[in-house]
Write a structure and sequence with these properties.
alpha+beta; 434 Repressor (Amino-terminal Domain); Jelly Rolls; 2 domains; 6-stranded antiparallel beta sheet; 4-stranded antiparallel beta sheet; 10 strands; elongated
Length: 188
C-alpha cells in the first residue's frame, strides 16, 4: 500500500546502508554528528529526521540524500563518484586540524585513508591503535613533524613516513603555512 501523503520511512534504509558499511550506531553517530539515541529512534521509525540530520547522515554514509529517502534498492553504478561536499570531515578546530575521510566506511577498521590538513601550530595526536596497526603519511604540501613514541622526525613535502601506530603518536605542523598530507591506516 503506497500512501504518498505519508513521510518516507528512512529507518530501514538507514539501517541497511549503515550495516552494509560495517558501522555501529556509535560509529555513525561520531561520523555524522548525530546522537546515538536519535539514530536508534530513526532506525526504529520512532522519529523522522530533519533535513539537516538527513543531509549529515547521507554525507556520512557517502550517498545522495535522495537515496536515503528512497526505500527502493537501486542498481549499483560501476563508477561511484563521491563529490567533495559528500566527503565526511572530522573537524579538529580546537587542535588546528581537519581530517577528511576519503576511504569508504565499509573498510573502516581494516584500511582507512584520510586527507589531513594542519594549520600552523596544528596537531593531530592519537593514542595507540590496536596491536600491529601501521600508518603511512605522505606530505603533499608543507612540512610536518612526526612523533612516534620517543622519536621525532621532520617529514618534508613529497616524502612518506611509515611507522607503527600501535603506540601514541602525533603529527604536528610547526611551520608558518598550512600543511596537507594523505594518511593511510592499515589495521592488522
Amino acid at each position: 500500500m503506497n500512501n504518498t501523503s505519508a513521510p518516507p520511512e528512512v529507518g530501514a534504509t538507514l539501517q541497511r546502508l549503515r550495516l552494509a558499511r560495517g558501522l555501529t550506531l556509535e560509529d555513525l553517530s561520531r561520523i555524522a554528528g548525530v546522537s546515538k539515541s536519535m539514530l536508534s529512534q530513526i532506525e526504529r521509525e520512532k522519529a523522522n529526521p530533519t533535513i539537516a540530520i538527513t543531509w549529515r547522515l547521507a554525507n556520512a554514509l557517502g550517498v545522495q540524500i535522495g537515496e536515503l529517502l528512497s526505500s527502493g534498492v537501486r542498481a549499483v553504478d560501476l563508477i561511484r563518484v563521491v563529490d567533495a561536499h559528500e566527503i565526511p570531515t572530522l573537524p579538529g578546530n580546537h587542535a588546528g586540524y581537519s581530517l577528511r575521510i576519503l576511504g569508504p566506511m565499509d573498510l573502516a577498521g581494516k584500511y582507512e585513508w584520510y586527507e589531513l590538513t594542519l594549520q600552523p601550530g596544528g596537531e593531530l595526536a592519537s593514542q595507540a591503535h590496536d596491536p600491529g596497526t601501521n600508518e603511512h603519511l605522505t606530505v603533499v604540501t608543507g612540512t610536518v613533524e612526526l612523533e612516534v613514541g620517543a622519536e621525532k622526525r621532520k617529514i618534508k613535502h613529497g616524502a612518506t613516513a611509515r611507522y607503527p601506530a600501535d603506540q601514541d603518536h602525533a603529527i604536528r605542523n610547526s611551520g608558518k603555512t598550512e600543511a596537507k598530507a594523505l594518511l593511510v591506516v592499515v589495521h592488522r
